Every structure is written in C-alpha cells, then in structure tokens.
Structure prediction request, 206 residues.
Amino acid sequence: MVVAAQFQTYTVEEFLNLDLPEGQEYELIDGRISVMAEPSGEHENLRSELMVELRMESRRRQLGLLVHPKPVLQLGPKDTRKPDLIAINRDAWNRQTQSEAVLRESPSVVIEIVSTNWEEDYRHKPLWYAAFGVSELWIVDRYPNRKNPKIEEPTIAIGQLVTSRSILVEREYEFQSFRGKQRIESRVFPDLEITVEEIIGYGKGI
Prediction:
C-alpha cells in the first residue's frame, strides 16, 4: 500500500492501492481524493431498510438482482463514486468482482439518499451516472424546504435513462417524482408495492 500525498492527483488504480486513514470513506473526483461526509442515523436506517426490501423483492419476483450498499463504481480513469445503493444483475456483479469489488460497467439502478450536499445529488450525479450508462436513478429526498428549495415535501424522484436532445451530453434522465402515499414506479422493480411514506418512514425506524 502507498501513503497518499496531499494535493497529488491519482488514477483509479493508484487510488485503490493507497493507504488511507481508516474510519472514513473516500471517492476519487477528477483524480483528487475526496472525503465522504458522515451520514446521519436516519440516513443509515433508510438505506439499510430499503436495501432489505429490495433484496426481498428481487427474491420474490426472481429478478436475479443483487442489492449492495456503497460499492465502488469506476466512472473513468480518475473517477470513482460510492452511491448509497445499487441493484445489479447477479452475473454482472460476479463477473466484475472476482478480483476486487470495483464495478467498471454500470449497474441497473443507482439509489442516492440526499444529505447535506443536495446540489451534487441533483445537479452533478445525474450527469455522472447517465454518462456511465446507469439505466435507472433514484434520488430519495427526506429534506423538504431545508435543502432543495423546489422540494416542499419528502420526495422520491426516479429517472429513466434516455437519449439527450442536447448537444452537450449523449444521455440524460427523464424524472418522475413521487410523494406521500404514492406508490413509486420502477422499471427495474416493476411490481414493487411501496409508497414514499413507507420508504421515508424507514429513516425514522417506522
């Protein structure tokens, strides 16, 4: 293992071999090491319970999907991300992670739970994941008013990857927003019977 040097840039391969301080999690953004913010207890409750629900749904419907928390996605030669959750075909996971748990091909679903960096969740991550080819992106926002001024109540936005009409990017997401007692609609989990209220309640231990 190699000790990280301040202000130096790294490739993903170099980053994965660094001897970084324990007790924190890291991403590589444009070659620079970024310390991930510590999640709240509610954030962790929600992620854990949603992971269990989606794993059970995959088994019930025999979807062949694995659901994993915070995997390493290699988006480019100098970029990694660790989303809150992913859903990925079992064979694709096993094929890519035999030597190390790093995904260089896109999963079917990425789920991000909004925390303090809501601008990144809404503005940057959809661009990153669309370029990577993730078919479906969930943004789970528990924070009305305090964060994104356009979110007036807890909202789950689910985006489907489409060809962009813009000359700036090849692909983007078309989002549909769900609130309250609305049942969310996922193409990857088409028979999932769960409402926004139920998912948000996971964070409170309900």
Summary: Residues 41-61 form the longest helix (21 residues). The longest strand covers residues 155-163.
